[in-house]
Structure formats: C-alpha cells, structure tokens
Amino acid sequence: MNSRRLLFSLSLACAVVTGLRAETRTGGPYQLHADHVGSGGGKAAGSIYIQDSTLGSIGGTSNADGMLSKVGYIAQLYEVVSLEITAAPATVDERGTRQLASTALLDDGTLLANLAGSTTWSVLSGPITGISSGGLASAGTVSENTLASVQGSWSGFSDTLDLTVLDIFDDRTPVSLAANLHTVFQGASSVEITLTRPSGEGPASVTLAASNGTNSAMPPFTGGVVGKDYQALNTVVQFAANELVKTQTVTLIPRTGKVPNIRFNVALNSPGPGATLGAITQAEIQILANDTTKPTLTLKTPAAGTVSSVLPVLLTGTVGDALGIERLEYSLNGSTPEDLMLGASTKATAIPFSAEIEPQEGANSLTLTAYDLRGNSTTLVRDFIFERRYVLTLLRNVPAGVAAEPDKAGTLALAAVPTKAASTLTKGPAPQTSHVVHGSQVTVTASAKTGHILSHWTGLPAGAQTLGNVVSFAMPEADVPGLTAVFVANPFPALVGTKKPVYQGLLEPDGMTPANNGTVGMVTGTLTPAKGTLSGKIWLDGKSTGFVAHLHGNGSVWFLVEKKLSTQFPFLGRSLEMSWSDDGLDMEVSGPAGTSEGVAKMPAYSKTQTVGAGLLDALGKQGYYTVALPAKEQSPAKDTDTYPQGTGYKTLTLLADGTFKLAGVLADGTKITAASYLVEGDEAAVFIQLPIPSTSAKDGSFSGMLVFDPANDDSDVSALDMRWYRPAVVEGTTVATQLYTAGWPDGVVLDAVGALYDKNLDFQTVLALGAPDVDGNAALIFKDGKLVTPPDLLVVPDINITLSKVAKIPATNKTFTLTLTQAKGAFNGTFTPNWTQENKTLPKFQGVVLQKGANKGGYGYFVSNRLTDLDPESGSVALKASSGL
Of the ranges 128-142, 532-546, 795-809, which one carries the lowest mean pLDDT score? Predict the structure, then answer.
C-alpha cells in the first residue's frame, strides 16, 4: 500500500449513540468489512491485511489478534514501517527448540502478527541447526552457553535476533593416555605418547606434563631427572572437532656407558572445554639399560622324583636379575604358558615366586621361563611323578559348654596302612585334617573324656565300617570333608540316680518263633555310669555267656568282640543286638531257631526311694509272700499224665529297696531259687535255669513276669503263663529220672498266685476252720498223681487244727501225718494213697498257705510211689476247712 491514508472520522456527541451501524466499504486496493460486534465493529480486509475488531461501546480503542484500532475511527488504512523478530525467552536448550515470532509494526504504532509461513527464516551464526517455516528454531550441541543469531524476512522487511544456546548436557569427552607404561632402550632419543578420546563432536584440550621419577629397589630403577634424562614438557594438547587421537613426543637425553634403568612420569591435567580426564591419566616412561645377562632361576617345589600331595600342588622357587625381571611364566605338560606372580623381595637377584598347579596323576613335565626387562630369558624343566592325596577332614561335635575346647569332650586319632599314606593329623580345636593317598586303609578312633560319651558318627564316606568308636574305610578318590564324631554329655549318672546301675529282662520268642528252652532266656547287666560300659550275661539254652558292651549317646550298644566293637554279640550260634533308652535295653537274639525279644530294665526302687507300704509288712522293712504254682490246662491241649498236676510253690521275701529273693519247689520236686527286683509298674522278671536229673546240664528253665498289686482282692502277687521247660531224660533208678521221662521240651505254662503272709495269724484263723469237733474241722484233699479212678481223688477229713496245732482223729491214726509251720506259712506230711501196690513208705506231700481272699487255703503237691512203678506222677494236695466237703 502507498503511504496514503484514508480515514473515516466520526464525531461523537456526549449523548449515547443508538442505531449505530457499520457498513461494508470497498476501494481499489482494499476492502473494509464491518459488522455488528458488540455495539459495532466487524472485519476489515485489504490486499495486505485483514482486521477483526470491535468498535467498542461507542467508538473507542479496539484490539483483536495483535491489531490496534484507535478511538474515533470506524475503519483505517495504514503502512508497515518495520519487522520485529522475537522469542520468549531468547534462549534455547541444546538439542532443544524455541518458537520464534514475526510481527509487523505499523506507522501508527499498531502491531500486526504475520501469518504462519509468511516469514522467511535463516541462521546467521551459532549452533542453531535449522528453523522451520513456522518459525521453530532447533539448537545443536554445545559444550558451553553459546550465542547464535537468526534472521526473519517478510514483505521486504527483515530483522535479526540473538539466541543463547544453553549448555544443559555434559558433552565433554574423557581424554586418556593410551598406555600407562612406555619402554625404550638406552640410547633412544624420544618416546611417543598417544592420547585418545572415545568421541568428540567438538574441540577439546588437555595439558600433558612430565615429572621426575623415583628410585626403586624392586624392580631396580633410578628416578629420571629433567634436563639430564629428558627435556621439560608441559604442553596443551588440542583436539579438533571429531579428532579422536593425538600424539605427543617426549624428547629424551641419551646417556652412554654403564647406566642404570631410568624412569620418569608423564601425566594429564587441566582439562579444557570439551574434555575431562579419562581412565589413564599417568604413565611411566622406562629407559632400560643395556643388558645381555640371562636371569637366574631356581625351582624348589615340586621336587624331582615322586610328589605325593593333595591338589593343588605348590610351585615355589626364586628368580633374579640385577637389572630386573619382566615376567616369569610356566607351562605344565605342554599347556599354554601362564604368568607366575612374583613375591616381595629387597634383592632383585632373589625374588620368590609361588603358584598352585594341578598335575595329572603319574608323569608330569613342568617348564618355567624367566624374562628380564631387556628380553633375556632362562628356561628350566622339571619332570616328576605325581601321586595324588585327598583331604580327610575330621570334626568333633561337642556340647556347647566345651565348644571352644573340644578336647575336654573327646579326642580323635588317625592311623593308616601303609603308615606314610596319611600325613600327621593337625591339632587344635579347629577341624583336623590329614592328606591321605586314595585307596589306603584309614582308621579313625574316637576317645571320650570324663563326663562325656561318644554318641555316633556322621559324614562317613561310602563303604565305611563303623565299629563303635572306630571307623575304618578305604580312602576314596575324593576329599572326605566332614567325618564327624558326635560327643554328648554322659547321661548315665543322672539316669541311674540313687538306684543300682543294673539291668535285667526276659527274652521271649516273637510271634514267628517256636517257644522252647533255646528261645526263652534272660539278660542281666551292670552299668558303669562314668564310662557307659555294660558288663552282662545272657542266659539261654542252658548256658550263660558273659559280654562287655559300650552304650553310645545315640542309643546304640556296641559289644566288645575279639578286641573290636560290634553291634552284634555272637554266642551259641546266635547273635545278640541291643539298643538303649531311658526305658531300658531293647534286646533281640537271632539265630537258626528264630528271633527272641525283650526289654531289660533298671530297678524302680532303691534304699532312698522305697516301695509302697502296701507291699511290705507292718514294720515296713520287708514283705514275706507265699506263692502257689497250680497246674492248668495247656493250649494246645496236653494229656494230664504227661506233665505234673500238682501245685508247686515258692516263698518270696521282698525288701524295701525293691529287691527280693525267692525259694521253692516245682510240682515234680525240682527246687528253684532266684533273686530279682521290681521295675516300673511293680513287675519283676524271674528266670531260673533248671538242672536235668542225674546230669550237670541245665537244659530246663522256669521263667515269667511277676506282678505285685496289693489292690487285688484275692492276691498280692500273680503271674500268667509262666514258662516251664524240661527236656526228656534217660530213665534211671531214682524217682527223679523216672518222673515224666519224656519231659516237655516245648514247655508247659503255669499261673502264679500269692499273697503277703502275716506270720502272726494262725492256720485256724486264716483257713476259717471253726472250732474243733469230733469229725474234724480241716481236711486234706489229694487229686491225680495216679490215685485210683474214678475220681482220682482222696479226702482225709480226720483233722482238727487249733490255732496252728494238728490233732488226729483218733490220735492214734497212722494213715497220715501233717505238720504246720506258721512262721513260714508251710505245711507237709504223708498220706495213705488208694492205689494198689502200696509202698511201705507213705508218699510225701508239701505246700504253702495263702492268706488272701478267695484263694485262702493250702496248696501243694505229692509224687506217687507205687511199688515197681517206673512212671510216677505228680498230684495236688489242698488244705481246707472240712465244712462243705
């Protein structure tokens, strides 16, 4: 548009203008559109502008989209006087963007925002990488805040804008030395130092400076001096953009003649823009002296010949060179050479070295080569035979109280065959070790100390044999890492307490084993609490066999057999095994006849812990018992003439400490004696080996478990199915050898019933006989024993008993005799039988009297004695009141 202006003036009155209307105006170069917007106003358009505005309430100033309309004008024409390029703010982050604005300034001060895409943009300088047609400026990468200049052009006008590109990223790259060691030989005039950086779009700089070196004995070096060994260096190394490698020359001052090794240093510092210090900032420059002498090399181990050791094998020796060793390497059996680490030394000619190698079993060849700093070398070859050993580690698990001093609980000893196949066992509380040739025989012995016992072993190698406190095995082709002896505090003193340290228990066949004298027996033993050792006997098959055993803390029992410990004790073609617990010794005997089992228990009472008062007499010191052993039907059934039908008996004296002794006679006349004690539950095991008539062999037995119970109405002591075994005998001239010669090798069973006996009670009272009368108040009743049938019964009623005195009816009656012993509760006598072929000597009878409940009465036996009868039999006798017969 030309500089002409066309103005439409509107005079405004003070009154409110109503009905004001704007109309469309047109002209050659422009068109003015107006419409009602508020009170008036509209859109003005021309060839170079468009204006949307309002008139205001009457005609005041109106603004719209960057245009300014002044008061008093309904429409206006204007000229552009300049272009203004702006950005808010005038900064842009590196690698970021910033929106630029293009605005036309009109001659009346009105601002007009140019349409997007109507401005032409360009970068005048700086790190602006481009500007879009819409004015979006993009920044590049900078290493510091950097100024940039941009330009915008529109309709013949232009303007520039300075933008600051902000350094918000650390774009510096690390500059590093390529190596930390540079080596040259004596006489060299320079050394090249290489600097590198991994990337770099921009320039960078760093300072490289040289400094004097230091003296060292190992390796032997003299510190280099500036001006004497090298020229001063302190220079800035510049990297151009995208330049990654730079080389800097360090000038040396060559020296002739005999000189030492010399060293000095170079270092990077003071990184400039675009740089940081990298991984290697210092390097040593070594000037190696002239040298043609080879290093010295000595190998100590492995020695030549046979090497017997665990893996790894220690390789040791010394290497030396007056001007320094560069490296020492080794090769085993042709393998790729490996460097050996050198040890500390103050002498360059004697530097120790060591390493761990793993030779193969059999022949080996070891090659060592030493190199000095000038490359001179010495090679040594060592051939040897390797015999591999493995590590045997022995441990002790002990109570916490002695964990720091395990020797107080127990010690371990090691032996090997051959002797030298195992190294000496290390000492101390830590794990003990020995190096052992595989395949050699190893024995480890554990010895418990006072107050402790061995419990068990753990960590045993495959195939190991445990013999109590001794473990034996062939050393495997592998380490044995944790063979452990477990020691525990000795439990036996507390277990025994005040009781006698003894055990006893019956052996009886299991359900699959036939019962006979070879499968029924007893085990007794005496414990030594301080050591946990048991000295005992096993009574079986007519024999008694002694044994010694060790009780271990895990409940196992080990027998001493031929000076070695074993879990099995062999005897009579059988073996005994046991284990222990607080409840007693569990026993098992196995052999060709089958298996017998039982539990041997300790006493329940002692002198300080006495039995209950109900088991003792009124004085509380002891209890005297009379016990009857009546015959009973057998299962399976037996003919009654094949075993005694009489009632054997015994008397028993129980002391307050729970021990007792018994004596008596079985119904065939065999005398029995035994001693025993009460265990928990007031039970007592009884086992008696019985002699065979006319021989010294004890191939018979009588056994069972007595139960004491004063609460029972009819007895104080009883037993069910006591076992009685008697083998066949050779018939002889005595009654004993003629009585039941076939015996009962498969056994018969008897019950026992007894009661506490009060010697102050007379027989008349105990048996409730009533007053004496002409017919007598008592009777003897004989049964079986070859009495005439029927009914195998004989009654002798002609007896009066007053207190404990016997009166016959009549007094001259010689058909029987009867003696009563009140102090013992016993009776005995003779009677006239009713069988034929009577003997001039009357048969004898004997028995005991029970004083309790329904079992009150006299019980005993007799043996028939018919003339010329070689098969006598036993019958029963009873002493009762005659009333009711």
Answer: 128-142
Give dist(CA 449, CA 407) in Å, integer.
Answer: 8
User: Are residues 301 and 266 both part of a single domain?
Assistant: no
Of 47, 78, 109, the last residue of a domain is: 78
Task: Write the pLDDT tens digit of every residue in 529-564.
Answer: 999 999 999 999 999 999 999 999 999 999 999 999
Does residue 497 belong to any structural domain of this protein?
no
Which of 76-90, 187-201, 270-284 has the weakest average pLDDT?
76-90
282 DSSP β-pair partners: 267
CA 463 to mean position of chain CA atoms: 23
The CA–CA distances, whole Å, from 856 to 614, 708, 733, 757 equal: 19, 17, 38, 11
Instruction: Please give the sequence-ordered ranges of beta strands (E in DSSP) within 592-716, or none if there are none.
Output: 594-600, 622-629, 648-655, 659-665, 671-677, 683-690, 700-708
- Running DSSP on this structure, what letter comes out for residue 738? H
Q: What is the largest CA-CA distance in the chain?
A: 190
In the chain, how many domains are there?
8
Between CA 306 and CA 420 the distance in angstroms is: 14
d(CA 721, CA 751): 5
Nearest CA to 860 out of 845, 880, 881, 882 is that of: 845
Q: What is the pLDDT of residue 561?
A: 96
Residue-wise over 326-348: b if at least 16 C-beta within 10 A, else e?
bebbbbbeeeeeeebebeebeeb
Is-cis flag, bond preceding 529, omega within 30?
no
Range of the domain at 862: 763-881
Around Cβ 677, how many Cβ atoms within 10 Å? Answer: 23
